[in-house]
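Let's inspect a concrete specimen:
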Amino acid sequence: MSSYFTQTEAAFAAFNQDPNALLLGIESSCDETAAAVLRGGREVLSMAVHTQIPIHRLYGGVVPEIASRSHTERITAVVDEALQKAGVTVDDIGAVAVTCAPGLIGALLVGVSFAKGLAYAKKLPLIGVNHIEGHIAANYLTYPDLEPPFMCLVASGGHSHIVLVHDYDEFELIGRTRDDAAGEAFDKVARALGLPYPGGPEVEKLAREGDPRAYPLHTPFNSDLSVFDFSFSGIKTAVVNLMHNAAQKGEEINRADIAASFQHSVVETLTMKSVRAALDRGMDTLALAGGVSANMALRTRLEKECRKAGIRFCRPDMRYCTDNAAMIACQGYYRMQKGERSDLDLNPSAGSFLSK
């Protein structure tokens, strides 16, 4: 056992025994530098987020090196802001939780290094948190009574999973994308339509003006509800080919109809497969998580289908949908309640959530 572990044993025990202990969460997996302070597992005292969207919009997507540099420049100020908003100092903090995977390795390294330095300097227990687990935990912040087990649809820029949440620290992968994640497909279609980054909100906005049934984009694989995996690459390619063929023939295309049809196809696939998975495993609750959970068409469709199926539908408050540190602190809290903590050899990983 390392000297750091020995030195923080008492602090770790004290944290787990105090229901009002304060936890600092840090998130830097992509292009948001975020910090938050939680009391216990679910009471959010403060959130601070610095977004890099204006910087990356110039390039049509996230540039990893620029993201890492921005995290380095902003992380101290963001953590200070979170502490000030909570009305506490670092000396009041009982533990530190930080995103350690998955994500951009350089971006993750900034947050992990900062968290380890702070934990070591203040002799605080440290816990590394998986980013996708954090997204799932965002639902706990919105629903105080929500507890495992439940089914969860995770849809984000880099990940699309159907996950059976057996416990706060126990997950089973039921389905996943075979290629592009839903959010990634949204961004690629947005680029094809000439929409700015980030593409998801822009496609959703344009889709409101279009006919969702103008272009049938469903595939046999996605229509098969006996298979819980998805495939979005073919839908994205169909949109690109549709636009290229029209351009070559000099035909006018309705961009709003394309956006609406694409969104409809993705939403239907995510909705029907996740609801079917919940019913198949006897779950009476289906939760939604990840950046794409902010999409109103998806939230509305899931709510409707869950109501028809007699399943409770949970979705995070909008402020917890995109990357934030409150969800990381929440998941970190429950990991620590299970007796887990990280040593100073904690390293970030760009790897995925679960493998099948």
About this structure: The chain has a mean pLDDT of 95. The chain is about 45% helix and 20% strand.
